[in-house]
Amino acid sequence: MRKYSLNRKYFQKYLKLGGLFIIISFIAAYFYSSKSRAHTSYATREMQFSYAFTVKNIPPEAKHVDIWAPVPQSDSRQNISNLEIRCDYPYSFEIGPEYQNPLLKVAANGSIPESLSVSMNFSVTRTAYHFLKEKDQPSATISEKARRRFLAPDHLVPIDGRIADEAKKVVRDDMTPLEKARAIYDHVAGTVTYDKSGAGWGRGDAVYACDARSGNCTDFHSLFIGMARASAIAARFVMGFPVPEGATEGNIPGYHCWAEFYIDGMGWLPIDASEASKHPEKWDDFFGGLDPHRIQFTIGRDIRIPSMGQSEPLNYFVYPYVLIDGKPHDDVQRHIRFSELK
């Protein structure tokens, strides 16, 4: 199995679409992360992370297998380094057209075995933060194009009808945007129960969450985002993985998501309503702040992948997406692990 270390040399060689963007992002993130470690007293976790998967039961007559997987990137609170791909087939990198998510693409052609394995390993430093408690609050600006997108509905996140009516129950015209966001957060975290029983949960369906008053993290945050957008607050969906608090290594069985909302003069502020619902003692901590027990992978919903040409966008993107001779293939075994570096 060939092994590639994705240092700057390999980025320059393999990043054909948007390569300069990623290189600049990684360099900028280094300075951001150095600054954040200097000014914050919040907890930091340094980990080795493995995102591996095996595509199984590939038909013997298959001629083309195309795989896309999300690639994490650095920001001011998450530093990704030593990114390494192991794969027996050619791979390249792409940039998502709408949300600028980096993507790994693997293409296997010709004689293909029954199974195909890929692994992505990297080091990550994740720092806890709380923008409303720190002296230097976020100052990121938002383009008008991005603002329009994050005020618009998603397929499963409407901003009219039932969702708009729900927002009107908790926001008032005399509230500031920050006060409105807090009212929506309190309402969602306080009235929705984290419950994965029955059918309908886990799709990030805002109307389902509003009606059932239950669901997983995708449902909590879809309802928050829909209500925020209905209240003229730009909001977006963030997807990644949880890292168990108190553990030094282990498997990660599933994803975790949260949301961010935009306030002029402040920037993007995070919330985690599902964790607040499960841990009321951290209620204030999860409005405007996050713990270090997570890794961010992608932003957005209704995600289109540039070279895939799919007629329908992906609801959200955190696990590999596979096409065999142009048809979706779901038989993928995932192996996601972490280990503490110190």
Q: Please indicate the count of domains.
A: 2
Here the CATH topology of the largest domain equals: C8orf32 fold
Total number of helices: 8
Cα end-to-end separation:
29 Å
Q: What proportion strand?
A: 25-35%
So, CATH architecture of the largest domain?
A: Roll
Sheet with the most strands, sense and barrel status: 6 strands, antiparallel
Computed over alpha carbons, the radius of gyration is 20 Å
Give the ordered list of helices and strands.
EHHEEEEEEEHHHEHEHEEEEHEEEEE
Output the CATH class name of the largest domain.
Alpha Beta
Low-confidence stretches: 1-41
Q: Structural class given helices, strands, pairing?
A: alpha+beta
Q: Name the overall outline.
A: globular
Q: Which strands sit side by side, in order, in the main sheet? A: 1-4-7-2-19-12
The total count of strands amounts to 19
Mean pLDDT: 89
Question: What percentage of residues falls in helices of 4 or more residues?
Answer: 25-40%
Fold and architecture overview:
- With 342 residues, this protein is α+β, with helices and mostly antiparallel strands.
- 25% of the residues lie in helices and 32% in strands.
- The chain contains eight helices and 19 strands.
- It has helices at 8-14, 19-39, 144-151, 161-168, 177-191, 206-212, 217-230, 273-278, and strands at 3-5, 44-55, 64-70, 78-87, 91-95, 102-109, 116-127, 129-130, 193-194, 214-215, 235-242, 249-251, 256-263, 267-271, 289-290, 294-299, 321-324, 327-328, 332-340.
- A six-stranded antiparallel beta sheet has the order 1-4-7-2-19-12. A five-stranded antiparallel beta sheet has the order 5-6-3-17-18, with no helix packed on it.
